[in-house]
Write the structure tokens for this entry.
Amino acid sequence: MKLTQHGQNLWQITRFAVINSYLVREREGLTLIDTNIGGSQKDILAAAETIGLPITRITLTHAHGDHVGSLDAVAALLPEAEVAFAPRTAEFLQGNLRLRPDEPQAKLRGGFMKRVTKATRLLQPGDLLGSLRVLAAPGHSPDQIAFLDERDGSLIVGDAFQTAGGTAVAGVIRWLFPFPAMATWHLPTALATAVALRQLNPTRLAAGHGRVLENPADELEQAIQEAEAKVHAQTKMA
């Protein structure tokens, strides 16, 4: 495990060099964003101990296994913690992988994982979770959400972007680390999410895979332009 602080309130927990979870400092303790792959619970609790604050909230960006793998184990170790995620994530965690009629009927990709932990709070776009504003961020998966720390502009995006192997919108392959793109459900939706997130003018971008970007505007613009070109090419071929 590698633990890295970014700004005053954000810590990045990295396992196997490319799989990230995040801890966000609040007055009463830490909010854990994503629980990483299975077997990560000891590293996560050790990170909180190093910071010197308890984990009081557990939340998820989406239901892929590298984000929810240790959910049950972490929740069992922290029975008093609030557990908060999106209603769509709740469905996927229960094994319901049916697409809704209003969603693009593209094939789901990536390893969705069933878990028994139930949310004590279901999150909707616009909600506040501590200092974090909840944002809809579908595309990589139908259920994905992101979080904007309104204190300092840090944006935690799950797999809406990746920075491992190079910055990219979900669905655009970076051959040094192609897995987020290969696990992306619907590129046009992912592009619309990327544009919406970029318009928030984040000061910091924290993705599920790769390094945290400071002042990410230029890299995000370049990634969006590349995704736009790919979507345009796919549309012409259709």
